[in-house]
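Researcher: I'd like a structural prediction for the single chain below. Treat it as a standalone chain; there are no partners to consider.
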Amino acid sequence: MAAKFTGTGVAVVTPFHIYGTIEFTSLEKIIEYVINGGVDYILVLGITSEAAALSKDEKNAITNFFIETVNKRVPVMLGVGGNNTQEVINNIKSLSFEDIDAILSVTPYYNKPQQKGIYYHYKTIAGASPAPVFLHNVPSRTSVNISAETTLRLAEDVRNIVGIKECSGDLVQIMEIIKNKPKDFLVISGHDALTLPLLSIGADGVISVIANAFPAELSEMVNLGLKGQFNKAREKHFKLLEIINTLFEDGNPSGIKAALDILGLCKNNLRLPLVKVNKAVYNKLSTLIEEFSGLVAKK
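Model: Treating it as a single chain, here is the predicted structure.
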């Protein structure tokens, strides 16, 4: 498991036609682009995919399309989460796990459960899953944080829970997890901008947004960090940092959709309630990407 999910994962977007249906031609283009760019694995139906705005049939179609297109070239992690524990279990039981290597399950949102509820939610899901389970802690979206204590308790108690995508931004909390976790429990950055600092204290990689647009450059930075070559990694990190920050100025995945439109990888279409980034952010991204691409081309 550590070998499969160490390094760079990418939370792939869902391209849409202007009239709202899924644009599978561009989705295939992005899948090929990120695999050829050297990412280590792919996350299907993460938050960046606009999964919350997809129907069950659409999610099934996207999952099947990824499995067929990836064709075992890299591991596939599938987002399966929600705030109804039994419904998450029902979704897991409806899946074929032949080509799904792990699931990523977001913390229950809206309900605002206590830590005890979070613990039993994940323990119950893990007991129903034939694939390894990664926790997804993203309190900026769910309004609830998985404490370090709860994370470590799950890591120790539940064999099928093998890692966490940590998006809290709380470096002290993440350090506590890394310091005290079981040896094979993976800690994965959920923030592109914090990936290098987290690698320096023992994190195992990232599930990235910017890797949709710059898979080779982000993967190179992560690989350097994992090897302890932090001077070189820091150089790569700072070249990407302003683009990373701009991607999130007007929301995710609105920012990365704009970047992919600028790069010609998919159209800048989103589903309500999400909308396109404002014109100022789009123009700023266009300038930054042009400058960055020019630097890459000169190498």
